[in-house]
Amino acid sequence: MTTEENGSAVPPRAGITATTAYARTTRIDELRAIEYRHLDRDGRVYLDYTGAGVAARAQIVAHHDRLLTDLYSNPHSENPTSEAAGSLVESARHAVLDFFRADPAEYAVIFTPNASGACRLVGEAYDFGRGRPLVLTWDNHNSVNGIREYARTAHAPVRYVPLTGPELRVAEPDVIAALTTARGRLTGIPRRRSSGGSGLFAYPAQSNFTGVQHPLTWVDLAQQHGYDVLLDAAAFAPTNRLDLSAVRPDFVCLSFYKLFGYPTGVGALLARRDALARLRRPWFAGGTIRAVSVQGDWHQPMGDESGFEDGTLNFLSIPDVEFGLSWLGSIGVDLIHSRVDLLTRWLLEHLTALRHRNGRPLVRLYGPATGTARGGTVAFNFHHPDGSLVDERLVAVESAAAGFALRTGCFCNPGAAEAAFGIDQDLLRDSIRTRPETIDQHLATLRLPTGGAVRVSFGLASTAADAERFLAFAESTYLDRDGPTDIRLAPRIRC
Q: Which of the following is catalytic: 119, 253, 410, 412?
C-alpha cells in the first residue's frame, strides 16, 4: 500500500467510501471542507473527539457577531443589558431541554463549568447515609468516582460493579446484585421508589475508555430497586440521541464542548425536579439565595435552578450553547451517529487484522472488536513482534510528530484501566504497602508492561481519510518493528 508521510493524502482502501452507507453521510465531508477546514491545516488528523469536540467556523462567527452587535452584563443586575443577558441564558436553558426532549415540568437545567461540576453538585448535596448507599460501575470517569468521597463522609456504603469478559462490559446480574445488597438486602425483589431514592446508582451511558455503551434500561432497573440514577452522558451525547422523554434518569451530567467544541467552560446538570428538591447544598453563594443575614445567621435558598448556579453564570458563552445545539440539530445526530459507526467498524476490522510477519497481532484491543453496542472510542496498545507492548508514551511522541491528535494513558477511568490491564486487588495491596510517590513507581510495583493505552475516537467532522491515515501510520510505524527502543521518555504525570 502506498503511504505518503507528513500529512499527504492517503488513497482510501477499497470499500469504505464506495459503500451506499457512507454515501448517505457525505454531507459531513461537505461540512468538513467548508466549516471545519482548519482541521486539515498542516496535514493534521484529529482523533480525540472523546476528549473534546471541534468547533465549526459558523459557531465562532456567531459568537463574534453577537458580542459586537449588542451589550450584555451581569444577569443578577436589573437593567437593560443584564436583562438582555438573562434572556439569552434562559433561551439556552430551554434549548437544552428541547434538544434532549425533556419536559420542562419534569426536568431542570443547571449550568455548570463542565460535567465534573455537575457530578460535584449531586455528590455534595445528595442525602447519603448508612441506608442510602452509592453504587457505581468500575467503568466510570473519575468525576463520577469522586462522588464516593461524599458518600463515605456520610458513612454510606459504597459498592462497585465489576467489568467482565474480553469486551469489558458490565453484566446485568452483577448490577442487580449490587443494587440489592448494597443496603444489606439479600432479596432480589424490586422496590419501587415512593417519596424519593434510597441510594444513588451512577454509571456512564458510554465508556470514555473502551467505547462500550451500557444499557439505558438500567435507569429504570435501578429506579425499580429504589435508587436515584446519575447518568454520565459526556461521552454518549455527542454522537447518540439521548431522549429524556423515553429514558428518565434523575440526574444527567454533560459538557457542551464535547458535543460541538465550543464553548468550553460550560456544562450542565439535567435534573428531575423532584430529585433536585431532595438535594441539600452544604453551602451557599451569590445568586443562590433569596435572602441572607449576617447578624441573624440565616439564609433562604432559591427554590429553582438558580439555587445551584454559584455566582455569576458565564453569560457571554452560555448563548453559544443554543447555537451549538441548533448547529448539531441541523446536521442531524442520527447522521453523525451513522458516520461515526461506519468509521469505527472499519477501523476495528482493519486494525485487528494487522499481523507481524511472525503471525502475531499488531494490536491488543480493549473493549468490543465489533460495532455492536459501542461508540466511536477505540482503545488499544501496539505489540512488538515478540509480543511485548510498545510504550504508550512513545506512541504519543511519534503520532504527534506525524500530525495526529490522539490520547494516551488511562483516560481518568481507573476502573476500566484496571480491568483492561488485569490489575487485581492483590497487586493493588502490594502497591499501597510500598507507598509509591509517582505514577511510574506505582506501575513498577504492579509489574505492568506499560502504563496506559492508546485511544483514537471519531466525531461529527470525522472522514474516511482520517481513519485511513491512522491505519497507514500504524502499519508503517509499528508493523514488524522490533523493540523496545532506547528513547528516553518523559515520566508519567497523572492517570
A: 412
